[in-house]
UniProtKB/TrEMBL annotation:
This is Multicopper oxidase CueO. It is an enzyme of class 1 (oxidoreductase). The keyword Isomerase does not apply. Belongs to the multicopper oxidase family. Keywords: Metal-binding, Oxidoreductase, Signal. It comes from Nocardia ignorata. Transmembrane segments: none annotated. It catalyses: 4 Cu(+) + O2 + 4 H(+) = 4 Cu(2+) + 2 H2O.
Length: 494
Protein backbone atom coordinates (compact mmCIF):
# COMPACT_ATOMS: atom_id res chain seq x y z
CA UNK A 1 0.00 0.00 0.00
CA UNK A 2 1.36 3.40 -0.93
CA UNK A 3 0.20 6.35 1.12
CA UNK A 4 -2.12 8.76 -0.64
CA UNK A 5 0.52 11.48 -0.44
CA UNK A 6 3.20 9.25 -2.00
CA UNK A 7 0.77 8.08 -4.64
CA UNK A 8 -0.05 11.63 -5.74
CA UNK A 9 3.59 12.72 -5.64
CA UNK A 10 4.39 9.88 -8.01
CA UNK A 11 1.77 11.15 -10.42
CA UNK A 12 3.53 14.48 -10.83
CA UNK A 13 6.40 12.70 -12.60
CA UNK A 14 4.21 10.81 -15.03
CA UNK A 15 4.07 11.90 -18.69
CA UNK A 16 1.36 14.26 -19.88
CA UNK A 17 -1.45 12.38 -21.57
CA UNK A 18 -4.74 14.07 -22.26
CA UNK A 19 -8.18 12.67 -21.73
CA UNK A 20 -9.55 11.06 -24.84
CA UNK A 21 -12.73 12.55 -26.21
CA UNK A 22 -11.79 16.07 -25.22
CA UNK A 23 -10.19 18.52 -27.57
CA UNK A 24 -7.41 20.22 -25.70
CA UNK A 25 -5.94 23.53 -26.70
CA UNK A 26 -2.15 23.42 -26.78
CA UNK A 27 -0.44 25.36 -24.06
CA UNK A 28 3.03 26.88 -24.27
CA UNK A 29 4.02 25.95 -20.76
CA UNK A 30 2.54 23.88 -18.00
CA UNK A 31 3.69 25.47 -14.77
CA UNK A 32 3.64 23.63 -11.45
CA UNK A 33 2.93 20.33 -13.11
CA UNK A 34 -0.57 21.40 -14.12
CA UNK A 35 -2.16 20.41 -17.42
CA UNK A 36 -4.08 22.71 -19.75
CA UNK A 37 -7.79 22.81 -18.96
CA UNK A 38 -9.53 20.56 -21.51
CA UNK A 39 -12.24 22.41 -23.42
CA UNK A 40 -15.20 20.17 -24.31
CA UNK A 41 -15.61 20.10 -28.08
CA UNK A 42 -18.78 21.58 -29.58
CA UNK A 43 -21.28 18.84 -30.43
CA UNK A 44 -21.57 18.57 -34.22
CA UNK A 45 -25.04 19.24 -35.59
CA UNK A 46 -26.75 19.55 -38.92
CA UNK A 47 -29.82 21.55 -39.87
CA UNK A 48 -32.24 19.72 -42.12
CA UNK A 49 -34.55 21.13 -44.78
CA UNK A 50 -37.19 21.17 -42.04
CA UNK A 51 -35.06 23.65 -40.07
CA UNK A 52 -34.47 21.21 -37.22
CA UNK A 53 -30.97 21.21 -35.72
CA UNK A 54 -30.00 17.58 -35.09
CA UNK A 55 -27.40 16.23 -32.68
CA UNK A 56 -26.39 12.73 -31.73
CA UNK A 57 -25.00 11.70 -28.37
CA UNK A 58 -23.91 8.29 -27.18
CA UNK A 59 -23.65 7.39 -23.50
CA UNK A 60 -20.67 5.07 -23.28
CA UNK A 61 -18.04 3.62 -20.99
CA UNK A 62 -14.33 4.31 -21.42
CA UNK A 63 -11.37 5.44 -19.43
CA UNK A 64 -9.74 8.81 -18.94
CA UNK A 65 -6.81 10.39 -17.16
CA UNK A 66 -8.47 12.43 -14.46
CA UNK A 67 -5.17 12.06 -12.62
CA UNK A 68 -2.14 12.43 -14.84
CA UNK A 69 -0.71 9.10 -15.88
CA UNK A 70 -3.50 7.11 -14.21
CA UNK A 71 -6.24 5.43 -16.19
CA UNK A 72 -9.62 5.75 -14.49
CA UNK A 73 -12.70 3.92 -15.80
CA UNK A 74 -15.25 6.64 -16.61
CA UNK A 75 -18.51 7.19 -18.48
CA UNK A 76 -19.09 9.94 -21.00
CA UNK A 77 -21.26 11.14 -23.86
CA UNK A 78 -19.64 10.51 -27.25
CA UNK A 79 -16.30 10.25 -25.47
CA UNK A 80 -14.81 8.70 -22.38
CA UNK A 81 -15.77 11.40 -19.88
CA UNK A 82 -18.22 14.38 -19.71
CA UNK A 83 -19.76 15.28 -23.06
CA UNK A 84 -19.55 17.70 -25.96
CA UNK A 85 -21.09 21.14 -25.53
CA UNK A 86 -24.50 21.29 -27.21
CA UNK A 87 -25.21 24.75 -28.57
CA UNK A 88 -28.45 26.10 -30.07
CA UNK A 89 -30.22 29.41 -30.59
CA UNK A 90 -33.42 30.69 -29.07
CA UNK A 91 -36.26 29.98 -31.51
CA UNK A 92 -34.50 27.01 -33.03
CA UNK A 93 -36.02 23.52 -33.05
CA UNK A 94 -33.56 20.89 -31.83
CA UNK A 95 -33.58 17.10 -31.93
CA UNK A 96 -31.11 14.92 -30.07
CA UNK A 97 -30.71 11.22 -30.84
CA UNK A 98 -29.23 9.67 -27.72
CA UNK A 99 -28.06 6.10 -27.79
CA UNK A 100 -27.15 4.12 -24.73
CA UNK A 101 -24.03 1.96 -25.02
CA UNK A 102 -23.74 1.62 -21.23
CA UNK A 103 -24.35 -1.71 -19.51
CA UNK A 104 -27.40 -0.25 -17.72
CA UNK A 105 -30.36 2.05 -18.34
CA UNK A 106 -29.84 5.79 -18.00
CA UNK A 107 -31.68 8.98 -18.92
CA UNK A 108 -30.63 12.43 -20.13
CA UNK A 109 -32.19 15.45 -18.45
CA UNK A 110 -31.85 18.97 -19.87
CA UNK A 111 -31.29 20.89 -16.66
CA UNK A 112 -32.70 24.42 -16.83
CA UNK A 113 -34.54 23.87 -20.11
CA UNK A 114 -38.16 24.84 -20.67
CA UNK A 115 -39.53 21.96 -22.75
CA UNK A 116 -42.36 19.40 -22.94
CA UNK A 117 -42.40 17.05 -19.94
CA UNK A 118 -42.12 13.92 -22.09
CA UNK A 119 -38.75 15.15 -23.39
CA UNK A 120 -37.46 16.35 -20.00
CA UNK A 121 -35.33 13.23 -19.53
CA UNK A 122 -36.29 12.58 -15.93
CA UNK A 123 -36.82 9.15 -14.36
CA UNK A 124 -39.83 8.48 -16.62
CA UNK A 125 -37.74 8.60 -19.80
CA UNK A 126 -35.25 5.80 -19.26
CA UNK A 127 -33.09 4.67 -22.18
CA UNK A 128 -32.43 0.93 -22.03
CA UNK A 129 -29.01 -0.40 -23.04
CA UNK A 130 -28.92 -0.46 -26.84
CA UNK A 131 -31.93 1.84 -27.17
CA UNK A 132 -32.10 5.30 -28.74
CA UNK A 133 -34.22 8.16 -27.36
CA UNK A 134 -34.93 11.15 -29.58
CA UNK A 135 -36.40 14.17 -27.80
CA UNK A 136 -37.20 17.27 -29.85
CA UNK A 137 -38.37 20.73 -28.86
CA UNK A 138 -38.19 24.40 -29.75
CA UNK A 139 -35.81 26.46 -27.62
CA UNK A 140 -37.98 29.16 -26.11
CA UNK A 141 -35.79 30.89 -23.57
CA UNK A 142 -33.05 33.47 -23.36
CA UNK A 143 -29.32 32.85 -23.76
CA UNK A 144 -28.06 30.80 -20.82
CA UNK A 145 -25.60 28.20 -19.60
CA UNK A 146 -27.57 24.99 -19.05
CA UNK A 147 -26.36 21.44 -18.69
CA UNK A 148 -27.40 17.88 -19.34
CA UNK A 149 -26.98 14.90 -17.06
CA UNK A 150 -28.52 11.50 -16.23
CA UNK A 151 -31.60 11.29 -13.98
CA UNK A 152 -32.29 7.58 -13.33
CA UNK A 153 -34.29 7.26 -10.14
CA UNK A 154 -32.01 6.20 -7.29
CA UNK A 155 -28.84 6.14 -9.41
CA UNK A 156 -28.25 9.73 -10.52
CA UNK A 157 -25.28 10.25 -8.20
CA UNK A 158 -23.53 7.15 -9.53
CA UNK A 159 -24.08 8.06 -13.20
CA UNK A 160 -22.93 11.67 -12.77
CA UNK A 161 -20.02 10.60 -10.60
CA UNK A 162 -18.76 8.27 -13.31
CA UNK A 163 -18.52 11.22 -15.67
CA UNK A 164 -21.84 11.79 -17.42
CA UNK A 165 -22.43 15.58 -17.71
CA UNK A 166 -22.25 18.15 -20.48
CA UNK A 167 -23.00 21.81 -21.16
CA UNK A 168 -25.99 23.02 -23.17
CA UNK A 169 -25.50 26.63 -24.21
CA UNK A 170 -28.34 28.73 -25.55
CA UNK A 171 -27.54 31.78 -27.69
CA UNK A 172 -29.76 34.68 -28.67
CA UNK A 173 -29.51 38.03 -30.43
CA UNK A 174 -29.70 40.11 -27.24
CA UNK A 175 -26.73 38.31 -25.67
CA UNK A 176 -24.80 38.36 -28.97
CA UNK A 177 -25.17 42.15 -29.10
CA UNK A 178 -23.44 42.62 -25.73
CA UNK A 179 -19.66 43.20 -25.62
CA UNK A 180 -19.01 40.15 -23.41
CA UNK A 181 -16.20 37.68 -24.08
CA UNK A 182 -17.77 35.12 -26.43
CA UNK A 183 -15.09 33.20 -28.30
CA UNK A 184 -15.69 29.62 -27.19
CA UNK A 185 -12.62 28.03 -25.65
CA UNK A 186 -10.59 31.23 -25.98
CA UNK A 187 -12.18 33.88 -23.73
CA UNK A 188 -15.51 32.13 -23.10
CA UNK A 189 -14.74 28.99 -21.13
CA UNK A 190 -17.08 26.30 -19.85
CA UNK A 191 -15.84 25.06 -16.46
CA UNK A 192 -17.44 22.15 -14.67
CA UNK A 193 -16.11 21.69 -11.15
CA UNK A 194 -16.38 18.26 -9.54
CA UNK A 195 -14.79 16.50 -6.60
CA UNK A 196 -13.62 12.90 -6.58
CA UNK A 197 -11.84 10.39 -4.42
CA UNK A 198 -9.76 7.72 -6.10
CA UNK A 199 -9.00 4.20 -4.98
CA UNK A 200 -5.38 3.03 -4.88
CA UNK A 201 -5.78 1.51 -8.36
CA UNK A 202 -7.09 4.78 -9.81
CA UNK A 203 -10.82 4.04 -9.96
CA UNK A 204 -13.36 6.61 -8.85
CA UNK A 205 -14.23 5.73 -5.25
CA UNK A 206 -17.97 5.23 -4.82
CA UNK A 207 -17.77 4.01 -1.22
CA UNK A 208 -18.63 5.72 2.07
CA UNK A 209 -21.07 8.47 1.18
CA UNK A 210 -21.56 11.11 3.87
CA UNK A 211 -25.02 12.47 4.63
CA UNK A 212 -24.44 14.93 1.75
CA UNK A 213 -23.30 12.14 -0.57
CA UNK A 214 -19.91 11.31 -2.03
CA UNK A 215 -17.33 13.96 -1.17
CA UNK A 216 -13.94 13.96 -2.87
CA UNK A 217 -10.51 15.14 -1.78
CA UNK A 218 -9.45 15.97 -5.34
CA UNK A 219 -10.92 18.69 -7.55
CA UNK A 220 -11.50 17.73 -11.16
CA UNK A 221 -12.18 20.53 -13.67
CA UNK A 222 -13.49 19.63 -17.12
CA UNK A 223 -12.48 16.07 -16.35
CA UNK A 224 -8.91 16.50 -15.04
CA UNK A 225 -7.25 17.24 -11.72
CA UNK A 226 -4.63 20.00 -11.62
CA UNK A 227 -5.62 22.21 -14.57
CA UNK A 228 -4.46 25.62 -15.68
CA UNK A 229 -5.95 28.03 -18.17
CA UNK A 230 -3.68 30.12 -20.36
CA UNK A 231 -5.47 33.47 -20.68
CA UNK A 232 -4.82 35.42 -23.88
CA UNK A 233 -7.35 38.25 -23.55
CA UNK A 234 -7.74 41.04 -20.97
CA UNK A 235 -11.00 39.54 -19.76
CA UNK A 236 -12.07 35.95 -19.58
CA UNK A 237 -15.61 34.68 -19.03
CA UNK A 238 -15.97 31.44 -17.11
CA UNK A 239 -19.28 29.59 -17.35
CA UNK A 240 -18.99 27.73 -14.08
CA UNK A 241 -21.10 24.68 -13.25
CA UNK A 242 -21.01 23.00 -9.87
CA UNK A 243 -21.22 19.46 -11.23
CA UNK A 244 -20.48 17.88 -7.88
CA UNK A 245 -22.74 15.50 -6.09
CA UNK A 246 -22.85 17.10 -2.65
CA UNK A 247 -20.05 19.65 -2.34
CA UNK A 248 -20.58 23.39 -2.09
CA UNK A 249 -17.92 25.75 -3.45
CA UNK A 250 -17.17 29.26 -2.24
CA UNK A 251 -15.32 30.63 -5.27
CA UNK A 252 -12.76 33.39 -4.91
CA UNK A 253 -9.52 34.46 -6.53
CA UNK A 254 -6.43 33.57 -4.52
CA UNK A 255 -5.18 37.17 -4.43
CA UNK A 256 -8.55 38.41 -3.18
CA UNK A 257 -9.32 40.48 -6.28
CA UNK A 258 -12.91 41.08 -7.29
CA UNK A 259 -14.56 39.54 -10.33
CA UNK A 260 -17.92 40.19 -11.94
CA UNK A 261 -20.92 37.93 -11.89
CA UNK A 262 -22.72 38.41 -15.21
CA UNK A 263 -25.14 35.50 -15.32
CA UNK A 264 -26.84 32.86 -13.20
CA UNK A 265 -28.71 29.62 -13.99
CA UNK A 266 -31.25 31.04 -16.43
CA UNK A 267 -29.24 33.71 -18.22
CA UNK A 268 -27.54 37.07 -17.96
CA UNK A 269 -28.22 39.42 -15.05
CA UNK A 270 -29.68 42.92 -15.47
CA UNK A 271 -26.20 44.24 -14.67
CA UNK A 272 -22.80 42.86 -13.68
CA UNK A 273 -22.28 42.38 -9.94
CA UNK A 274 -18.78 42.85 -8.45
CA UNK A 275 -18.00 40.08 -5.96
CA UNK A 276 -15.03 38.70 -4.07
CA UNK A 277 -16.72 35.40 -3.21
CA UNK A 278 -19.48 33.40 -4.78
CA UNK A 279 -21.08 30.28 -3.35
CA UNK A 280 -22.34 27.60 -5.75
CA UNK A 281 -24.25 24.51 -4.65
CA UNK A 282 -24.63 21.37 -6.78
CA UNK A 283 -26.36 22.04 -10.11
CA UNK A 284 -26.05 25.84 -9.95
CA UNK A 285 -24.25 27.80 -12.68
CA UNK A 286 -22.60 31.21 -12.69
CA UNK A 287 -21.06 33.21 -15.49
CA UNK A 288 -18.18 35.26 -14.13
CA UNK A 289 -15.79 37.65 -15.87
CA UNK A 290 -12.23 37.96 -14.57
CA UNK A 291 -9.81 40.71 -15.64
CA UNK A 292 -6.09 39.97 -15.82
CA UNK A 293 -3.00 42.04 -16.66
CA UNK A 294 -0.28 40.76 -19.00
CA UNK A 295 1.90 38.13 -17.35
CA UNK A 296 -0.25 37.91 -14.23
CA UNK A 297 -1.03 34.63 -12.50
CA UNK A 298 -3.79 33.91 -10.06
CA UNK A 299 -5.84 30.93 -9.00
CA UNK A 300 -9.54 30.32 -8.83
CA UNK A 301 -9.95 28.82 -5.40
CA UNK A 302 -12.73 27.51 -3.20
CA UNK A 303 -12.70 28.86 0.35
CA UNK A 304 -14.49 27.42 3.38
CA UNK A 305 -18.27 27.89 3.32
CA UNK A 306 -19.19 30.91 5.43
CA UNK A 307 -22.96 30.37 5.43
CA UNK A 308 -23.15 27.55 7.97
CA UNK A 309 -25.46 28.65 10.76
CA UNK A 310 -27.60 25.71 11.84
CA UNK A 311 -25.33 23.13 10.17
CA UNK A 312 -24.09 20.89 12.97
CA UNK A 313 -21.56 18.76 11.07
CA UNK A 314 -19.89 21.37 8.85
CA UNK A 315 -16.52 19.58 8.68
CA UNK A 316 -18.11 16.28 7.68
CA UNK A 317 -20.02 18.07 4.91
CA UNK A 318 -16.81 19.61 3.52
CA UNK A 319 -17.58 23.18 4.64
CA UNK A 320 -14.08 23.69 6.11
CA UNK A 321 -12.19 22.69 2.97
CA UNK A 322 -10.07 24.95 0.75
CA UNK A 323 -9.19 23.84 -2.78
CA UNK A 324 -7.34 25.31 -5.71
CA UNK A 325 -9.75 24.97 -8.61
CA UNK A 326 -7.97 26.39 -11.65
CA UNK A 327 -4.68 28.22 -12.18
CA UNK A 328 -5.09 31.27 -14.42
CA UNK A 329 -1.96 32.30 -16.31
CA UNK A 330 -2.09 35.44 -18.42
CA UNK A 331 0.12 35.65 -21.50
CA UNK A 332 2.75 38.42 -21.75
CA UNK A 333 0.63 40.11 -24.38
CA UNK A 334 -3.13 40.14 -24.06
CA UNK A 335 -5.66 40.89 -26.76
CA UNK A 336 -7.85 43.81 -25.70
CA UNK A 337 -11.33 43.00 -24.37
CA UNK A 338 -14.22 45.48 -24.35
CA UNK A 339 -15.02 46.91 -20.92
CA UNK A 340 -17.97 45.22 -19.24
CA UNK A 341 -21.24 46.91 -20.18
CA UNK A 342 -23.08 48.70 -17.36
CA UNK A 343 -26.28 46.81 -18.12
CA UNK A 344 -26.92 43.37 -19.55
CA UNK A 345 -30.38 41.80 -19.97
CA UNK A 346 -33.37 43.48 -18.32
CA UNK A 347 -35.70 41.36 -16.23
CA UNK A 348 -39.41 41.90 -15.65
CA UNK A 349 -40.67 40.95 -12.19
CA UNK A 350 -43.03 37.95 -12.25
CA UNK A 351 -44.57 38.86 -8.89
CA UNK A 352 -44.13 41.26 -5.98
CA UNK A 353 -42.19 40.33 -2.85
CA UNK A 354 -45.49 40.52 -0.96
CA UNK A 355 -47.40 38.09 -3.22
CA UNK A 356 -48.78 35.30 -1.03
CA UNK A 357 -47.34 31.85 -1.60
CA UNK A 358 -49.35 29.34 -3.63
CA UNK A 359 -47.56 26.33 -2.14
CA UNK A 360 -44.98 25.61 0.51
CA UNK A 361 -42.22 23.06 0.76
CA UNK A 362 -40.35 21.94 3.88
CA UNK A 363 -36.94 20.35 3.32
CA UNK A 364 -35.77 17.90 5.97
CA UNK A 365 -33.64 14.74 5.94
CA UNK A 366 -34.39 12.99 2.65
CA UNK A 367 -37.90 14.40 2.42
CA UNK A 368 -39.92 17.26 1.03
CA UNK A 369 -43.05 17.92 3.10
CA UNK A 370 -42.38 14.71 5.00
CA UNK A 371 -42.60 12.58 1.90
CA UNK A 372 -40.12 10.71 -0.21
CA UNK A 373 -40.41 10.33 -3.97
CA UNK A 374 -42.89 7.85 -5.37
CA UNK A 375 -42.84 7.60 -9.16
CA UNK A 376 -46.49 6.56 -9.05
CA UNK A 377 -47.60 9.58 -7.04
CA UNK A 378 -48.30 12.99 -8.56
CA UNK A 379 -47.58 15.46 -5.77
CA UNK A 380 -49.37 18.40 -7.35
CA UNK A 381 -51.07 19.59 -10.50
CA UNK A 382 -50.54 23.10 -11.78
CA UNK A 383 -52.98 24.90 -14.09
CA UNK A 384 -51.22 26.08 -17.22
CA UNK A 385 -50.75 29.80 -17.86
CA UNK A 386 -50.34 30.66 -14.19
CA UNK A 387 -47.66 32.33 -12.13
CA UNK A 388 -47.06 30.63 -8.81
CA UNK A 389 -45.13 31.67 -5.72
CA UNK A 390 -43.52 28.82 -3.84
CA UNK A 391 -42.26 29.12 -0.31
CA UNK A 392 -39.33 26.79 0.36
CA UNK A 393 -37.94 26.30 3.85
CA UNK A 394 -34.88 24.38 4.99
CA UNK A 395 -36.04 23.19 8.39
CA UNK A 396 -33.02 20.92 8.73
CA UNK A 397 -29.51 20.95 10.15
CA UNK A 398 -28.26 19.68 6.79
CA UNK A 399 -27.50 21.68 3.65
CA UNK A 400 -30.08 21.33 0.87
CA UNK A 401 -30.92 23.12 -2.31
CA UNK A 402 -34.09 23.24 -4.37
CA UNK A 403 -34.38 22.67 -8.11
CA UNK A 404 -37.51 22.90 -10.27
CA UNK A 405 -37.76 21.40 -13.75
CA UNK A 406 -39.46 23.18 -16.68
CA UNK A 407 -39.09 26.74 -15.38
CA UNK A 408 -36.62 29.42 -14.40
CA UNK A 409 -37.71 31.25 -11.26
CA UNK A 410 -37.12 34.60 -9.60
CA UNK A 411 -36.23 34.69 -5.92
CA UNK A 412 -38.63 37.19 -4.34
CA UNK A 413 -37.44 37.02 -0.74
CA UNK A 414 -34.93 35.32 1.52
CA UNK A 415 -36.31 35.28 5.08
CA UNK A 416 -38.68 38.08 4.11
CA UNK A 417 -35.98 40.36 2.72
CA UNK A 418 -34.94 41.15 -0.84
CA UNK A 419 -32.38 38.63 -2.14
CA UNK A 420 -28.72 39.66 -2.50
CA UNK A 421 -27.66 40.77 -6.03
CA UNK A 422 -26.12 37.36 -6.78
CA UNK A 423 -29.57 35.77 -6.33
CA UNK A 424 -31.47 38.42 -8.26
CA UNK A 425 -31.31 36.80 -11.69
CA UNK A 426 -33.09 33.83 -13.25
CA UNK A 427 -32.50 30.64 -11.28
CA UNK A 428 -33.55 27.01 -11.51
CA UNK A 429 -31.63 25.85 -8.42
CA UNK A 430 -31.27 27.75 -5.17
CA UNK A 431 -29.21 26.92 -2.12
CA UNK A 432 -31.29 26.88 1.05
CA UNK A 433 -29.50 27.84 4.25
CA UNK A 434 -30.45 25.88 7.33
CA UNK A 435 -33.44 27.57 8.95
CA UNK A 436 -34.12 29.97 6.07
CA UNK A 437 -37.20 30.44 3.89
CA UNK A 438 -37.12 31.46 0.23
CA UNK A 439 -40.04 32.61 -1.87
CA UNK A 440 -39.74 31.83 -5.58
CA UNK A 441 -41.92 33.12 -8.41
CA UNK A 442 -42.28 31.01 -11.55
CA UNK A 443 -44.53 30.90 -14.55
CA UNK A 444 -46.02 27.74 -16.08
CA UNK A 445 -46.64 29.13 -19.52
CA UNK A 446 -47.37 26.07 -21.68
CA UNK A 447 -46.48 22.40 -22.32
CA UNK A 448 -49.46 20.72 -20.69
CA UNK A 449 -49.31 16.94 -20.31
CA UNK A 450 -51.64 14.79 -18.17
CA UNK A 451 -49.27 11.81 -18.30
CA UNK A 452 -45.65 12.88 -17.91
CA UNK A 453 -44.65 14.84 -14.79
CA UNK A 454 -41.83 17.28 -14.15
CA UNK A 455 -39.68 16.92 -11.04
CA UNK A 456 -38.75 19.23 -8.18
CA UNK A 457 -36.00 18.12 -5.84
CA UNK A 458 -32.93 18.71 -3.76
CA UNK A 459 -29.96 18.71 -6.18
CA UNK A 460 -27.56 17.11 -3.70
CA UNK A 461 -27.58 13.95 -5.78
CA UNK A 462 -27.50 11.56 -2.83
CA UNK A 463 -30.56 13.33 -1.38
CA UNK A 464 -32.31 13.17 -4.75
CA UNK A 465 -31.51 9.46 -5.03
CA UNK A 466 -32.82 8.91 -1.51
CA UNK A 467 -36.15 10.33 -2.62
CA UNK A 468 -35.92 14.03 -1.75
CA UNK A 469 -37.98 14.70 -4.84
CA UNK A 470 -41.57 15.12 -6.00
CA UNK A 471 -43.52 15.34 -9.26
CA UNK A 472 -45.99 17.77 -10.79
CA UNK A 473 -48.16 17.88 -13.87
CA UNK A 474 -48.98 21.03 -15.82
CA UNK A 475 -52.60 20.73 -16.95
CA UNK A 476 -54.85 22.49 -19.45
CA UNK A 477 -58.26 23.69 -18.22
CA UNK A 478 -60.50 20.66 -17.69
CA UNK A 479 -57.64 18.20 -18.18
CA UNK A 480 -57.42 15.36 -15.66
CA UNK A 481 -54.23 13.61 -14.55
CA UNK A 482 -53.62 10.37 -16.44
CA UNK A 483 -50.24 9.25 -15.08
CA UNK A 484 -48.67 6.13 -16.43
CA UNK A 485 -48.24 3.35 -13.88
CA UNK A 486 -44.55 2.75 -13.45
CA UNK A 487 -43.06 -0.64 -12.91
CA UNK A 488 -40.25 0.33 -10.57
CA UNK A 489 -38.37 -2.84 -11.44
CA UNK A 490 -38.41 -2.20 -15.18
CA UNK A 491 -34.99 -1.63 -16.64
CA UNK A 492 -35.90 0.10 -19.81
CA UNK A 493 -38.96 2.23 -20.32
CA UNK A 494 -39.18 4.38 -23.41
CU1 LIG B 1 -30.19 18.71 -12.70
CU2 LIG B 1 -33.78 17.07 -11.84
O1 LIG B 1 -31.92 17.84 -12.27
CU1 LIG C 1 -33.33 19.79 -13.86
CU1 LIG D 1 -30.81 17.91 0.24
Amino acid sequence: MVSRRGFLAGLALAPVVYAAGCSVRPSVSAANGTRPLPIPSLAPSSVGADGVRRFTLRAQAGSSEMLRGVSTPTWGYSGSVLGPTVRARRGERVELAISNALPEATSVHWHGMHLPAKFDGGPHQMIAPGAVWTPSWTVQQQAATLWYHPHPHGATEKHVHRGLSGFFLIDDDAADALPLPKEYGVDDIPLVIQDRRFTADGAVDESDPTDVGLLGDTIVTNGIAGAHLRVTTERVRLRVLNGSSGRLYNLALADGRAFHLTGTDGGLLPKPVALEQLQLSPGERAEIVIALRPGENTTLRSLPITDRAGIDRAAEFGFDDTFDILALQAAETLRPSAPLPASLIPMTALAAATTPATRSFDLQWFMINNRRMDMNRIDMTIPVDTTEVWSVRNKDNWPHNFHVHDVQFQILTVDGKAPPPALSGWKDTVYTSSGSTYTLAMRFADHTDPTYPYMFHCHLLHHEDQGMMGQFLVLAPGQRPAPMAMDMGAKGHH
